[in-house]
Write a structure and sequence with these properties.
Elements: E1 4-10, H1 14-23, E2 33-36, E3 47-52, E4 64-66, E5 68-73, E6 76-81, E7 86-91, H2 92-104, E8 109-112, E9 117-124, E10 127-132, E11 137-145, E12 157-168, E13 177-183, E14 190-199, E15 202-212, H3 219-230, E16 236-247, E17 258-260, H4 276-296, H5 311-326, H6 331-341, H7 344-351, H8 357-366, H9 369-384
Parallel strand pairs: 1-2, 1-11, 2-8, 5-13, 11-17
Antiparallel strand pairs: 3-7, 4-7, 5-6, 9-10, 10-11, 12-15, 12-16, 13-14, 14-15
Helix pairs in contact: 1-2, 1-4, 5-9, 7-8
């Protein structure tokens, strides 16, 4: 209780480590920063993929990039390609190592493992108390919260997936093109296969569902059957496994003295499940504004801003998810129509949140009118009521 930390970051995952690595720079040496992480060690536990439209701090860690991708339904396939934008993949352990190394080289940022947080509460306008699960209490001027969201209700809409990194002894995969979504219509949710081919003999294969959390498919059986088909009967081994559940609803964390990071800060895009780029950019933006405040001597009044998504994107995402939930069996057809009618540049701009008004209008025109107009009207009426 003796030390008053300038900044405490609760949670050392993607959101927490991204900000901590930014604050480890020499220009923040006047601050004392502490990261509290519940886990005991960092291992590869997920794979982040995203549209690499511009370089970022961790671009050099990308395992692979692709300039071609496709979606398919049955025998129908639509392919897209872009020379200026790639689809990139980055293993979590590479990010963890780089961020932890940046922190370890700093004299003013500390990372404390095996430190779960039980409670965060405002003590007075200038001080927040953080109570650890072990019973200790810490004091901080500002707290950023990057912990996972609280337990979801069974009815919550989620993207859940299980992936295997598959290795073969003969050439099986096309390393030039990502299988972004290979749909299998199902009445309980939107189901598709996702294949990231790292080489002709290695790929990450995922079974992905967008559905209520209550729907729990047999991932192992699904993957065994699909991988056997994908490998055309050739022998394969599984070198890595991952599983994830991403909430596709906005985070509604209790109002506290903290600023949310990562999923708790709504950097996950509901319509796509992507979060990496927005999380990293939010951390960089926070550091930039803090640096300005320190340089001008206004840091005492610095107000860190929560991540904000454009209202238009938020509305389009909500309408899109409403349409999917109305008829899961039809949902794959909407994606197929989008990828067949929209250009690669328009599609990527929309998925990355960088679309202009003209591109958003073209995206809307590429989708069937009636189901989306009906969902938009229902949402507008519901908001007025």
């Amino acid at each position: 209780m003796d030390k008053l930390w300038d900044i405490v970051i609760v949670g050392g995952g993607l959101g927490g480590l991204s900000l901590a690595a930014e604050l480890a720079a020499p220009e923040f040496a006047s601050l004392s920063v502490l990261v509290l992480e519940k886990r005991s060690q960092y291992v590869r536990d997920r794979t982040w993929s995203y549209w690499a439209d511009t370089p970022h701090r961790y671009s050099y860690l990308e395992r692979h990039q692709w300039h071609q991708w496709n979606v398919s339904l049955g025998e129908t396939m639509h392919s897209q390609s872009s020379k200026r934008t790639s689809y990139a993949s980055l293993d979590a352990d590479a990010f963890y190592k780089a961020a932890v190394q940046a922190i370890s080289q700093s004299s003013h940022v500390s990372l404390r493992m095996e430190s779960g947080v039980a409670n965060v509460a405002l003590h007075n306008p200038a001080e927040t108390l953080i109570r650890l699960e072990q019973g200790d209490t810490l004091r901080a001027r500002r707290v950023f919260d990057a912990r996972p969201l609280q337990q979801l209700e069974p009815s919550a809409l989620v993207q859940q997936f299980t992936g295997w990194e598959v290795r073969t002894e003969c050439d099986v995969f096309n390393p030039k093109q990502v299988k972004l979504m290979a749909f299998e219509p199902h009445p309980r949710g939107l189901h598709f296969w996702y294949v990231l081919p790292y080489s002709t003999r290695c790929a990450l294969v995922e079974s992905t569902w967008v559905s209520p959390l209550s729907w729990q498919p047999d991932y192992e059986a699904e993957l065994r059957q699909y991988v056997a088909k994908l490998c055309d009967g050739n022998a394969y081994s599984v070198s890595y496994r991952e599983h994830g559940v991403l909430s596709l609803q906005d985070a509604h964390a209790p109002i506290t003295a903290t600023i949310g990071l990562g999923r708790r800060g709504n950097t996950l895009r509901p319509a796509t499940g992507y979060a990496f780029i927005d999380t990293v950019r939010h951390a960089a933006q926070l550091a930039k504004t803090l640096h300005t405040a320190l340089r001008t001597g206004t840091d005492a009044a610095w107000q860190p801003k929560a991540f904000q998504r454009a209202a238009t994107e938020h509305w389009m995402d909500a309408v899109f998810l409403d349409v999917l939930m109305r008829n899961w069996q039809r949902a794959p057809h909407y994606f197929m129509q989008l990828f067949s009618r929209a250009t690669a540049d328009d599609t990527v701009a929309f998925l990355t949140g960088q679309a202009s008004w003209q591109q958003r209008l073209r995206i809307m025109r590429s989708l069937p009118t009636m189901p989306f107009a009906s969902a938009a009207l229902s949402r507008a009426v519901g908001q007025r009521v």
